[in-house]
From TrEMBL:
Residues 8-115, 135-239 form the Glyoxalase-like domain. Pfam families: Glyoxalase_6. Residues 221-241 are annotated as: Disordered. This is Glyoxalase-like domain-containing protein. PANTHER family: CONSERVED PROTEIN (PTHR35908:SF1), HYPOTHETICAL FUSION PROTEIN (PTHR35908). CDD domains: VOC.
């Protein structure tokens, strides 16, 4: 028994508009979702995107963002142009004039990067090359153990993991860390896999996550029995039975 990463949830004032933007950028198809709108991958990404309604305002740079890869300089230009046509915009996070990657924001200000061709770190990844995260070495180790994904980078307190089945890397940049002002706009959904008879699988998995360094938020379980937790850096995630 274990858990599987099944979705990246993104809070949105207008979930439909944001889903249409990302469907256009990624080429993914819209799917049914009980709480909002979802996109299913058409590649080896391995998890869906869920856009959930929220009134919360974005107050600082997100803890996590997409790094999109480019097979050529022309592909990088095309990805940027497509994102701008769909409602994205250029965004300054201090990258400087010599940066080879292009920093953009989606229609609700969520940052993402279009990486230049020839990036060796993401060479084996697909179009969604990475979920680049602000976080500690400890949290990289935590997620490696939780998902049973091997560490593919562990240097100078920077870590990265990747599914054995491929897909994007998840990276953590190490210190310094930005202050966390509230609930993250981007969060993981995990689902229990394996023996789930009579709910015992969920309880056993919750205990395992706590033993690895997770914490329960104290919130009541959701209508389908889902439980919200936080990782060692305080980032929220949800575990579904």
């Amino acid at each position: 028994m274990a858990v599987q990463l099944v979705a990246l949830c993104i809070d949105a004032h207008d979930p439909l508009r944001l889903a249409r933007f990302w469907a256009g950028v990624l080429g993914w198809e819209q799917a049914d979702d009980p709480e909002g709108i979802a996109l299913n991958p058409n590649d080896d990404t391995g998890f869906r995107l869920r856009f959930l309604p929220s009134e919360a305002e974005k107050v600082q740079q997100n803890q996590m963002h997409f790094d999109l890869t480019s097979a050529s300089p022309e592909m990088q230009r095309q990805t940027v142009a497509r994102a701008l046509e769909l409602g994205g915009r250029h965004h300054d996070v201090g990258q400087g004039p010599d940066a080879t990657h292009v920093v953009l924001a989606d229609p609700e200000g969520n940052e993402f990067c279009v990486i230049a061709a020839g990036n060796k770190f993401l060479a084996e990844c697909g179009f969604v090359g990475a979920l680049a995260s602000d976080g500690s070495q400890e949290v990289g180790y935590f997620w490696s153990r939780v998902l049973d994904w091997p560490l593919v980078w562990d240097q100078d307190q920077e870590t990265a993991i990747r599914s054995p089945h491929g897909g994007p890397k998840i990276t953590w940049g190490g210190p310094p860390f930005a202050a966390k002002p509230g609930r993250n706009r981007l969060r993981f959904d995990l689902a229990v896999v394996g023996d789930r008879q009579a709910g015992s699988g969920l309880n056993t998995e919750l205990d395992r996550l706590v033993s690895l360094g997770a914490a329960r938020t104290g919130a009541a379980p959701g209508p389908l029995g889902e439980v919200e937790m936080t990782d060692p850096d305080g980032n929220e995630f949800t575990v579904w039975p």
